[in-house]
Amino acid sequence: MVQMLKFALLGFLNYTPMTGYELEGWINASTGNFWHAELSQIYKTLKQLEKSGEVVSRIEPQEGRPDRRVYTITDAGKANLEQWLATPILEDVDKKDPLLLKLFFTPPSDRAALITQLRIQLRLHQQKLDHYRQQSPTEILQFAADHPELLTNAPLWEATRRHGELYEEMYIRWIEETLQQFESLP
To answer: What pTM did the predictor assign?
Structure first.
């Protein structure tokens, strides 16, 4: 599969020039809900993009702080991003879920450990659902307010937020059903 982080970075840089650190912040506040990256991965990918001519960087001096490197998408980067966006996804997307793998292989005799794991995951998914319902809409509105030129993108950002919300609702429901099933066994 094509390296998706490359296209995530090109997509953000298509909005506005940014540093690697700023890109990490934008990812964490938006696509991090469904596509995340570590800062080290971001910088490695930015170097590759610069080497391939899809981005350029410039050093901006800062008073009292280290200089910062700001990345800008090039015409070649825009063309590559546009081509990727226009190419339909023709295959089912694999989803790897370690909880499902553990559930599949946990022996029935270790039911207590499984119930504990399910309760931990239930709490984590409830927290993520709260984030989608409370913080994410605010972040989308703030970002759109800060970048009015991108206001037409806000419905698409909202669609990805809503996907996350619905996914977490489904996952929570599944965990609750699974817990009920295992807790009621003799």
So the answer is: 0.80
153: CB partners within 8 A, 6+ apart: 144
CA distance 105 to 166: 27
- Residue ranges covered by each domain of the chain: 4-86, 98-183
Instruction: Tell me the H-state helices in the chain.
Output: 4-15, 20-29, 39-51, 75-86, 98-105, 111-130, 136-146, 154-183
* Distance between start and end Cα atoms, the chain: 45
Within 10 Å of residue 11's Cβ, how many Cβ atoms? Answer: 15
Q: Pairing mode, if any, of strands 65-73 and 55-62?
A: antiparallel
User: Is the per-residue pLDDT at 32 higher than 90?
Assistant: no
Model pLDDT, residue 1: 40
pLDDT reported for residue 53: 98
**Which fold, 4-86?**
Arc Repressor Mutant, subunit A (1.10.10)
The amino acid that residue 59 corresponds to is I
How far is 147 from 159, CA to CA, in rounded Å?
Answer: 18
Tokens of 11: 């997509």
Mean pLDDT for all residues in the chain: 90
Helix or strand or coil: residue 44?
Answer: helix
